[in-house]
Amino acid sequence: MIPMTLDTIAQVVGARLHDVPDPRALVTGASAVDSREVVPGGLFVATAGAHVDGHDYAAAAIAAGAVAVLASRPVGVPALVVEDVQLAIGLLAKHVLEHLSPAVIGLTGSVGKTTTKDLLAQVLERHAATVATDRSFNNELGLPLTVLRADATTRYLVLEMGAGRKGDLTYLTGLAPPHLGLVLNVGTAHVERLGTGPADIAEAKGELVEALPANGFALLNADDRYVMSMAVRTKAQIMLYGRPREAHVRAEDVRMADRARAAFTLVTPSGRAPVELDLIGEHQVSNALAAAAVATALGLGAAEIADGLNAARRRSAGRLEIVERPDGVTVVNDAYNASPESMRAGLRAVKALAGARRTVAVLGAMGQQADASRARHAEIGRLVADLGFGVLIAVGAGDPLALAEAAESAKRGVAVHTADDVADALRLATALLEPGDVVFVKASSEIGLDVCARALAIL
After folding, report:
1. How many CB atoms lie within 10 A of CB 227?
2. How many CB atoms lie within 10 A of CB 259?
3. What is residue 164's predicted lDDT score, i.e. its pLDDT?
4. Among candidates 365, 356, 363, 362, which has minimal Cα distance to 388?
């Protein structure tokens, strides 16, 4: 955060100062929406959610070192009061970025955004000061919070951009105009809000490349035809990545190394170099190539990109997070979120990791799948059976029951169980797990199966 006085911030966002003894007090630290994450000299952003109202924690934030609270009403401590807190934090982020000069990298896609962002950040920060989206703070609130962590030393600003509906990326790129835009893929995540199919989702995701300047770069996945269709929507220079030989950045000799880790030869215009990721699953190759494409556009060579990828580690929880228990049970927590694409990738990665060991799948609903939801859950059930999972626990009513029925109907020997809720799933899994098993836990975040995964990991 560049240092700013409270009265300057008030002018930028159109706020009224309340209970502020010194309008010239400086905000020098990052902003936070969680009072437990406030840093001395920072700004606390009070938002009202479905279950928690940040205004109730204003005093605690000030006690923790916040200079003031950005709020929608007076809170009895120093506050900048605005009508719309989300709009105001966006205006502040846009103002701050206009006074900085990092290379702004926007990335979007249906799946893989956070893993790719984490890989890219670890490649770039070896070379210069880098600020990247924390966790999955990729929306109208999270993106400004990321921007406000940047300062005069920041050379690379990596912004994960989510699109829950059309127009979201237009708004986000208006706050932080990108010089490089990376599009990973077009899948079925958020199809319920984005339209009826992939073309509608591509329409929304393509707003990112439309925002790029003529001297910028559009990094497009050559393996995804819907992403490739976005080429006509940008005036920026296009760089392709993927498996095809025409891709500027591509993978050759793709293989699975020890413990199901993806390995390949990275090929870029500057040369070739070996990559062996510390992440499981062949689908990670595409994520790594996406990060490599951005780094290539920024001028890094193949060898230094490969060095960064080889040294990279998983940073975000709940994404193929592996815990080895003392009894030999391996828990794979992939319960941050779920779509058909990420569910398929996760199931295959876990089977590759397990080898001859018995595999147990604890699966809940995949949200926002619209009218095709039941059919897509049934497809996942058949895949569980076809891959040879030993046990399936389907959690919840509705679509998970279709998943269970499809797995059982496949008659491939999978033992199918159903659980009413997360607590029931934990009870069942605890009873069924045997030493040496590999258990995979995944569902959309609102299901709460992360609680089950973390409990299983410490049993």
Report:
1. 26
2. 12
3. 84
4. 356
Q: Do 340 and 380 form a contact (C-beta atoms < 8 A)?
A: yes
Which residues line the annotated binding site for ATP? 109-115
pLDDT at 300: 98
- In the predicted model, residues of the chain with pLDDT beneath 70 are 189-196
Q: What fold does the segment set 321-457 form as a domain?
A: Protein-Tyrosine Phosphatase; Chain A (3.90.190)
100-311 maps to which CATH number? 3.40.1190.10
d(CA 343, CA 336): 11
Paired residues of 240 in beta bridges: 220
Instruction: Provide the pLDDT for residue 136.
Output: 86
User: Residues 360, 347: contact at Cβ < 8 Å?
Assistant: no
Span 35-69, pLDDT tens digits: 999 999 999 999 998 789 999 999 999 999 999 99
- pLDDT reported for residue 135: 86
Which H or E run contains 119?
helix 113-124
Annotated binding-site residues read 109-115
Annotated domain spans of the chain = 4-83, 100-311, 321-457
By 3-state DSSP, what share of the chain in percent is helix, strand and coil, each rounded to 5? 40, 25, 40
Measured CA distances, 314 to 120, 215, 224, 338, 347 (Å): 12, 33, 25, 18, 18
Q: Domain 4-83, what architecture?
A: 3-Layer(aba) Sandwich (3.40)
Q: What is the pLDDT of residues 111-139, one digit of tens each?
A: 999 999 999 999 999 999 999 999 889 99
Rounded Cα distance between 173 and 58, Å, is 30
Find out whether 69 and 44 touch, Cβ atoms under 8 Å. Answer: yes
Let me know if 177 is exposed, middle or buried by CB neighbors in 10 A (0-12, 13-18, 19+): middle
- Which residues lie closer than 8 Å to 49 by C-beta, 6 or more apart? none
